[in-house]
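Deviation from plan, reported transparently: uridine-diphosphate-N-acetylglucosamine complex.
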Amino acid sequence: MTVVVLLAAGRGVRMRSERPKVLHEAAGRPLLDRALDTALAVAGSAAQVVVVVSNDGDAVASHVKAAYPGVRVARQNPPRGTGDAVRVAALAFGKAKSVVVLSGDVPLLAAETVKGLLAALAKDKKAAVAVLTARLQDPTGYGRIVRDKKRAFVRIKEEKDASEKERAIGEINTGTYAFDRAFLEKTLSLLTSKNSQNELYLTDVLSLARKAGRRVVFVEGDAASALGVNSRADLAVVERILRDRKASEAMRAGTTILRPETVTLDETVVLEADTVLEPFVTLLGKTRIGTGTVIGQGTVVKDSVFGKNVTVRPYCVIESAVVGDGAVVGPFARLREGTDLAEGVHVGNFVETKKAVLKKGVKANHLTYLGDTEIGERTNVGAGVITCNYDGFAKHRTTIGKDVFVGSDSQLVAPITIGDGAIIAAGTTVTEDVPRDALALAREPQKNLPEGGAKYRERKKQR
Ligand code: UD1
Ligand code: MG
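Because the crystal trials were delayed, the predicted structure below was used instead.
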C-alpha cells in the first residue's frame, strides 16, 4: 500500500498574493486540483492521500474538503520546510510500504510518471528512495543534484545554499519522490535546519540515505513534469503548455484552428470534428461545439452548447446559451444566460439576448434587445426593437407568436403578448396585447407641409 503526501503549506511568497499559491489557477483550474488528481490516481483511494496545509491555509483546507471529499488534511503550524511538512503527515502513514511525496505547486506531473518512481523503488531492494529529476537549460530556483567525481550522488543543494559552481548544474530535483516508508519515518526525526532558510529540508533525507548505505534511485523525467510554479511568470508558462496541449488534442480530433497560439480552450470544452476556430477565440467551461460550426475571430464562449453548422461571426460574447443547428450569430452579438436559439435562427450585429427563446427561423438582425421573451417560428424582428422587460421594480415577459413582423424601432412594454401573424408598424410603442393577424400602429400621423423644407432652409440662410 502507498500513502501519497501532497505538500501545500508553503507561503508562496514569490507569488506576491493574498491567495494561497496552490489555489491560483492554470487553464481554469487550481494548481492544487491538478496535483490532487495525480495523487488520487497514484494512491487509488482518497483515504490514502494527505494534503499538508498551513494554519493560515484555511482556504486550502476548505477547498480540499469541498472538491475532494475523503482526502485527509494535516496542519503544519508554522510551515518550517518540506521535511517538517512530511513529518506532520507521518501520522497517516500507518503500515504503508511506500510514501509518495508530491508538491501542490507542480501541476503538470502525470500519474504514470509517479507510478514509474514506485516501480523503480520496488525493483531495488537496497533503495530507500526514488526521486524524479530533470535536466533543464535554466535550472534557476530548483534544488541541484550534486555528484562527486565518480558521478555518485552526494546531496541535493537548494539554490539559496548553492555555490556558484553548484548553480551551474543542470540536473535538478523535481520535488517528486517515492520513499520506503520505514526508512522515511525514522530519518525524518534526524533532519536539522542548518541551512540558509533555517528550514527542515526533505531533500536531506536523500543524503542521509546515502550515509546509511541505502540507495537513492534517480528517474529522469521531462522538463514539463518538473515545472514548479513559484511565480506569476511560472504560472504563465504552465498556462501556455496546457493551452497548447488542448489545442493540439482538438486539432488531432478534427478541429481546424487557424492560429493555435492565439486560441484559449479550457480542458472541459468538447469540439466535434470539422469545426473551425478563427484566431483569438476563447472557449470556456462546459462548452460543446457541433460539427461544421465556425467560430469567428475574437469570440468568447462560456458554458454553451452549439449544434451543427452554426456560423458565429467575429467578436461575439456568448454565455450559458444554446445555439441550434445552422444558426447564424453576430458579428458583435451578445447572447446571455438562458438564450435558446432554435435551428436556423439569425441574431445579428449589436443584438443582446437574455432568457430569450427564439424558435425555428426567427430573425433579429440589427441593434436589438430581447430579454425575458419567447418568439415563435419565422418571426422577423426589425432593427432597434426593444423588449422593455423591466419597469424599475420587476422583470416581465414578452410573448411573440409565429410569423409576426415587428417593425423597426418598436418598443414592446412587458408584460405583453403579440398574436401569431400580427404586424407591428415601425416606431410603435406597444403597451396593449396585439391579437392574431392584427396590425398595431401607435404613432403620430405624419403631416407634410408643402415647400416646408425649402422655406426652412431659406430662413436659416437669412440669419
Ligand atoms: C523544493 C525542493 C527543491 C526542488 C523544488 C521543485 C526542498 C528543500 N526543496 O524547493 O529541491 O527542486 O521543490 O519544485 O524540498 N511546503 C510545505 N511546507 C513548508 C514548505 C513548503 O507544505 O514548510 C510545500 C509548498 O507549499 C510547495 C512544496 O512544499 O507545494 C515545495 O515548497 P517550495 O517552497 O515551493 O520549495 P522549492 O523552493 O520550490
Ligand atoms: Mg516550489
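The pocket of uridine-diphosphate-N-acetylglucosamine (ligand 1) is lined by residues 7-10, 52, 76, 79-82, 84-85, 103-106, 142-143, 156, 158, 172-175, 201-203, 228, 230 (CB under 6 Å). We consider this an acceptable substitute for the interim report.
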